[in-house]
Design brief:
The protein is an alpha/beta fold. The chain has 10 helices and 11 strands. It is 42% helix and 15% strand. Helix 1 packs antiparallel against helix 2, helix 3 crosses helix 10 and helix 9 packs across helix 10. The chain is globular.
């Protein structure tokens, strides 16, 4: 068991440890509920999570010399932290959290910045548009006397409207009702989704390279197209994910699932007017190869990886952003789901950014 005494940190640090530690444990429990692990496995995961947080405080943040945090009267600054410290979800979760917290900062006139440094620099793909959200590394204060760590993590099995209320309360309690220079926020929050199209455009514009690829694929696919998404996680054995649902189907069941999804996609295509193309996105290259044999399908070429992982093949990151932008430009989006396939937030967020209809087709 981890040897840790709360007395080893000052009051502010103790509060944050309790808050973040409990949220990490909730996350671990929600992940493992899919697999019914042994108590020993869960205990080990909890201990590892606690170690991450202790390392964060001891190695990255200085605790100051006072038993109480300093009281600051200057402008507050919220910084979204995506740096592989304690929280690293997928692209949809990252962007959703950014847009949600930005909406609150905009309401309250709080300075807003993004520190996205892992597994790549965000500015390689997205640049500031109307809001300069870039912050230089030397301006980030890793001192618990000046900065407050805040985790706003969605909880399992809670409706989005209820989650929004919870997330706003956490923001109010931790940001509005305290005085620090900076608030380092780790989040996948869900707030003000109806405003996502405008919020996204205020914050982001594609990098030159990304924009050129968006233009190229828009030219190839045409103005009128719909989108079909399939999220298999690790069921087909060709994608690495760490959402706790890393079950791989036996080879025979993999083939059956691919064929089942192929048939369902064909039925969907047959219902569409002939002048529509169908953008197909998936986390499985095996399925994309199969889907490409259907008429009118359009698939963005490239390697598929989860965006949380470090890779030297940065084209894989580019494909993920391309998928997101092309999905957001579709006339409508459909997430196909059957059996143990995942209820992905990726096409849902794309539909929200593009203000387009979205539905889940279960079969």
């Amino acid at each position: 068991m981890i040897k840790y005494t709360k007395q080893s940190f000052h009051k502010n640090c103790k509060f944050m440890f309790t808050s973040i530690y409990n949220r990490i444990l909730n996350y671990c429990n929600s992940v493992y509920k899919y697999k019914s692990p042994s108590s020993k496995t869960v205990k080990k995961m909890k201990e590892e999570s606690a170690r991450w947080f202790i390392d964060l405080l001891q190695q990255r943040y200085s605790t100051g010399t006072s038993d109480s945090p300093c009281i600051h009267t200057g402008n507050k600054c919220v910084i979204i932290m995506i740096d592989n410290t304690i929280y690293n979800p997928g692209l949809a979760d990252k962007l959703r959290g950014i847009l949600s917290i930005y909406s609150l900062c905009k309401e309250k006139h709080i300075d807003f910045k993004i520190n996205w440094t892992y597994p790549f620099e965000l500015t390689e793909y997205l640049l500031p548009n109307k809001i300069n959200w870039i912050i230089e590394q030397e301006k980030i204060k890793y001192s618990l006397s000046d900065s407050k760590i805040v985790v706003i993590d969605t909880l399992p099995n809670i409706h989005a409207s209820r989650q929004s209320i919870i997330d706003k309360k956490i923001f109010d309690d931790t940001v509005l009702n305290s005085q620090y220079l900076q608030y380092h926020i780790y989040t996948n929050s869900i707030i003000h989704t109806q405003a996502f199209p405008n919020l996204f455009r205020e914050l982001f514009t594609p990098s030159e390279k990304l924009q050129s690829l968006i233009d190229l694929h828009h030219k190839n696919i045409g103005e009128k197209y719909v989108a079909a998404s399939f999220r298999f996680l690790e069921l087909l054995g060709d994608f690495k994910d760490s959402e706790g649902m890393d079950e791989m189907l036996p080879p025979r069941e993999q083939k059956l699932l691919i064929e089942q999804c192929y048939i369902e996609l064909k039925k969907f295509i047959d219902t569409l007017p002939e002048f529509y193309k169908i953008l197909v996105t998936s986390d499985s290259e095996r399925f994309l190869t199969k889907a490409s044999t259907l008429p009118r399908t359009y698939i963005i070429p490239g390697k598929v990886i989860h965006i949380r992982y470090k890779t030297t093949d940065t084209s894989a990151y580019m494909k993920t952003f391309l998928d997101m932008f092309l999905l957001s430009g579709a006339e409508s989006l459909v997430l196909f789901k059957t059996g143990k396939m995942y209820n992905s937030g990726f096409p849902r967020l794309a539909s929200q950014i593009g203000n387009k209809p979205f539905k889940i087709h279960e079969f």
